[in-house]
Design brief:
heterodimer; A: about 325 residues; mainly alpha; MetI-like fold; two-stranded antiparallel sheet; 13 helices; 2 strands; about 75% helix; about 0% strand; flat; B: about 350 residues; alpha/beta; D-Maltodextrin-Binding Protein, domain 2; nine-stranded mixed beta sheet; 12 strands; about 40% helix; elongated
Chain lengths: ~325, ~350
Amino acid sequence: MRTEGTAAAVAPAAPPARAGGFSLAEEIVGKAVGDRVYIAVITGFALMVPLLLILIFWEVALAGWPAMRQFGFSFLTSSEWDPVRGQFGAASAIFGTVVTSILALVIATPLALGVSIFLSEYAPRWLRQPVAFFVDLLAAIPSVVYGLWGIFVLIPLLREHVVPFIRDTLHLGVLPIFSGPSWGNSVFAAGIILAIMVLPYIASVSREVLLAVPRSQREAAMALGATRWETIQKAVLPFAKSGIIGGIILGLGRALGETMAVTMLIGNKHEISASLFAPGYTMASLIANEFSEASGDLHLAALMAVGFVLLLVALIVNAVARWLVWQVGRAAAGGAR
Amino acid sequence: MTAIPRLLVAAAGIGFLAACAPDSGSKGSTTGAAAGAGSGIALTGAGASFPQPIYNKWFSDYAAAKGVKINYQSIGSGGGVRQISEQTVDFGASDAPMSDEEMSRAKGGPILHIPTVLGADVITYNVPGVPAQLKLTGPVIADIFLGKIKKWNDPRIATLNPGAALPNSDMLVVHRSDGSGTTFIFSDYLSAVSPEWARVVGKGKEVKWPTGIGAKGNEGVAGQVKQTPGTIAYVELAYAKQNNLAYASIQNAAGNFVQPTLETIYAAAESAAPNIPANTDYRISIVNAPGANAYPIASFTWLLVYKNPSDPAKARLLTDFLRWALTDGSAAARALDFGPLPPAMAERLKARIDSIAPGSGT
């Protein structure tokens, strides 16, 4: 399939000769050695990436196998992480990874969509480039700088202003997710920093997708008497939906794997708490924290097993996301278009 | 089992290629061992990050004095133990002694532990209105880190510090989230002074903390303490000194409250030295040492070398360096807030270094 597509792209003007059971690609390949070499090389390159991924999976699984064999399913359900006694369970880290990532998306997605809709639909031309530039610039800040900013600005801000506001002014302290003591270092802080870090990815992709929506789409909605907001809501956004979801998935991937900034803010505690203000742990930060000094074989294997679980979670999330994009794409094809 | 070393070797970086290269043609000049490596690196080592400042100073001083270049990578004690066991480096470094099991797995035969300098942990804290030199005892520290003492005005702290205005505020324990020799020393000390700690938590470079939050590195812990009123934490002495952190006086085994200084950690090693048996392998702990002026949370850090290195030229370079470090290196150690070894002990160690002899490497 891939070969055919490539060959067709090489010679788009060639007549569609399919007689005699030969495909166009085979015919061309048969003629020129250069083409054959070219196809072999790019096929090799294309296969190398999946192969690399499979190799990584294989090596990590192999290295983590002793821990997986010893703890079995309880590795996923236990929060007991005791290097001294050789007890390892990754549940709290899995929980923390998922919760911080979801929190990041919940905060970042509306903001990113707002930015991209503003830039593509409302912003005057002179403002568009500078704002887009600054949003994109967020992606260029090293994560350790985000972490430092978190320690010196975000955490004191949360501890002294945001948390008291949520609890005393809004009286939301009774909710389990806002309960318990708050020191600043928390799942909440990690989620906020992740939101800032993934925002440029979502905003940038969404903006491009929105700008790619055909002018006719907007004009048709306007012609039917839609207001500007109705045009965006009913004609532009549905058209761009699958692309926007793609951007969110990209951001989610970043959030799942982020290490440094998270470990500086999350409190690194093996604990599953209902409260967002409680400290937690993520899989990536667990590996980063303990790998260099892990001395026992089982400890190393447990960290490798955590890496394997992280890969699996990323894989599952991506698969679900692909499926979502596909579903949305179908709905869009049948509906808005 | 084989996959882990393979991954690690890949991760260890090209610095070790010099060490990995087959030791061909190394019987030439005095720097013959460096002949294989174009960079002129004579020896490579890897391990603990805790003593990295003094090791780097030593290696640069030694290169200037003797023209022998030593490359050291602070990849962590665990990595140091694995690298020396796999023979990918000429020496390892660790803040925690190797276990018998780890030693039995070393591929190059028996491994010697050579103590190099003394390090110590201090208890630092941030309580508004409470001055430096808060007095604490071992059991109180253990109960704080076990989560049993939760308030700053707890009677057990108040009785130790009459006159100090202790607030009725919550206490937040901050500990290291990354594995470290600093944590090993601290948990070793708490295990020595608190049976409950030894039973519930134990000692290690990473432990299961009963309470508190984790921060990465000495700088992460110190930053957290500075930022958060009500915190208490442990950091390495050299780091605390260089950053002017407030720290506590701790009651030692003799009953005196001592400040962490170079003199008091030196006193700890000196008072522990007579109890070290003549045939020791130097895998010894000096926490809670008996001396009247001994600071209780102190420890050695070790270089790990093979007793019978396979390469004679490298063996000579290494033993020359070790002798130099134990004598000429002590001034540099003091300047960087690492305690030098007591002279009597350094003398005994020299005999041990002399026993290093090239061999078949088993």
